[in-house]
Amino acid sequence: MPAFLASLPAPLLTVLSHDWLHLARADQLPPCPLAPWTTWAVIGGRGCGKTRTGAEWVSALALGDPAFTAEAVGRIALVGETYADVRDVMIEGPSGLLGLPARGPRPRWSPTRRRLEWENGAVALAFSAEEPDSLRGPQFGAAWSDEIAKWRHPEAAYDMLQFGLRLGRRPRHLVTTTPRPIPLIRRLLGDPGVVVSRARTADNARNLAPAFLEAVVGRYAGTRLGRQELDGALIEDRADALWSRDGIEAGRRARAPELGRIVVAVDPPASSGPRADACGIVAAGSDGARAFVLADATLRRATPQAWASAALALYHRLQADSLVVEVNQGGEMATAVLAEIDPGVPVTAVRATRGKYLRAEPVSVLYAQGRVHHVGPLPALEDEMCDFGPDGLTSGASPDRLDALVWAITHLLLRPGPEPRIRRL
Questions:
Q1: Is residue 101's pLDDT more than 90?
Q2: Partners of 372 in the beta sheet?
Q3: CA angle at 383 for the pair 412 and 149, rounded to the nearest 5°
Q4: DSSP 97
Q5: Taking the CB of residue 126, how many other CB atoms lie within 10 A of it?
Q6: How far apart are CA 362 and CA 371, in angstroms?
Q7: Which stretches are transmembrane (predicted)?
Q8: Domains defined for the chain, CATH in brackets
Q9: Per-residue confidence at 118, pLDDT binned at 50, 70, 90?
Q10: The model's pTM
Q11: For residue 166, how many other CB atoms are within 10 A of its CB?
Q12: pLDDT value, residue 283
């Protein structure tokens, strides 16, 4: 093969170096355009090339590449978690539509109109999954949905998009995502009409920074989180976990009601530096009978000043009543750092007298009773909750987000507190 390539003229080699059919892996190429499929789901790990796959597919459809489509597609929807994600990743990102190797005039991007237009008149329109109703009305011949497992309203946005795929002889939809076991992902993977391609982070190693492969892949390979985020595996709940995803999903709310109390709970690491545990930072509020988990601002490998500043920023943003800080390990240091940065903030020190599992059990009972609700998606926290059993997390790591959550809910619902003052979020 090297000798054959060396015999080719330079212009042809240049074309081949940019030709996606020549460069792509098998999992990055779509099903046959003549086959009767409607949805192609590319399920993969972080950095496996999902964005490049989506951008190449959309570009080929817009330009009418016969290897990808029987005819050019004139109207295409680009849907991401937010409009900023569509712009920064799907369009302007290094692997996005504007970052593809030039094969002629580049499409023109109009940010104010949220519109990408090719010279032949084909148009791609940008949409945010946070606004499902924005997909009500427009119609398309194809769509690319990115990272649907992170969408705030996955079912509503996905369903609205399906109603708009009604142009051409066979409208088609590409989904690119790292999986999480939410109902929509289960629905797609269980649908015999959906063509599924899978990829791992390691499959794209030649295009990834060696430091990333060493630090991230090396650290998480083989763990539950690594199997999901690196291998693109759909990891279901542990049978012995205190929480289930279905239970959390059943209690999820789009917004919180008027709240009488709000706290920010902090589970500080015992040390700092590259090997230190994360600092769990979780905010929750209560209306008296129920608790609402509002935010997860947990930081990894942060200095005491960094995590203290993050906790205080969340406290002020939510107009919270108190910081609830575990003081078992490094407690005096934690409260001292918080007081140094903002001495006016009230700090409630709490001390663990039982193990993590025993502290978490009463909180899990409140969830089972329907008394705790998550406001919007909190994926990293929820992954930790649904992987926490009698022996801790399967990875052996410290459940720092979960610890902070347990302190917050315990403080709000399982201990007496001050008279509430009503806040609207």
A1: no
A2: 291
A3: 115
A4: G
A5: 23
A6: 12
A7: none
A8: 2-229 (3.40.50.300), 245-413 (3.30.420.240)
A9: very high
A10: 0.65
A11: 10
A12: 98
Nearest-CA neighbor of 338 among 273, 262, 266? 266
Query: Per the structure block, which two tokens stand in for 28?
Result: 């990055």
Per-residue pLDDT reduced to its tens digit, 227-279: 788 888 887 778 899 999 889 988 999 899 999 999 999 998 876 655 567 89
Evaluated on CA atoms 227, 232, 234, 236, the torsion sign reads positive
Q: Hey, how many other C-beta atoms are within 10 angstroms of the C-beta on 382?
A: 24
d(CA 138, CA 121): 17
Residues in the chain: 425
Indicate the burial class of 90 (C-beta count within 10 angstroms; 0-12, 13-18, 19 or more).
buried
How far is it, in rounded angstroms, from Cα 38 to Cα 172? Answer: 5
HSE-up (13 A, CA, CB side) for residue 376:
13
- Determine how β-strand 172-177 pairs with β-strand 39-44: parallel
Dist. CA 237–CA 386, nearest whole Å? 6
Name which of 300, 277, 304 is nearest 396 in CA terms: 277
Report how far residue 304's alpha carbon sits from residue 310's, in angstroms, rounded to the nearest whole number.
10
- Give the whole-angstrom CA distance, residue 197 versus residue 191: 14
Angle between helices 400-413 and 356-368 (to 10 degrees): 60
221 DSSP assignment: T
Q: pLDDT band at residue 353, thresholds of 50, 70 and 90? A: confident
Under 8 Å between Cβ of 310 and 299 = yes
How many Å apart are CA 384 and CA 225, to the nearest integer? 9
The 10 Å Cβ neighbour count of residue 239 is: 7
Q: What is the CA radius of gyration of the chain?
A: 24
246 SS3 class: helix
Amino acid identity at 279: C
Kindly report the number of other CB atoms within 10 A of residue 68's CB atom.
Answer: 22
Pairing state of beta strands 280-286 and 261-267? antiparallel
Query: Residue 286 CB: number of other CB atoms within 10 A?
Result: 23
377-392: pLDDT as tens digits: 888 899 899 989 999 9
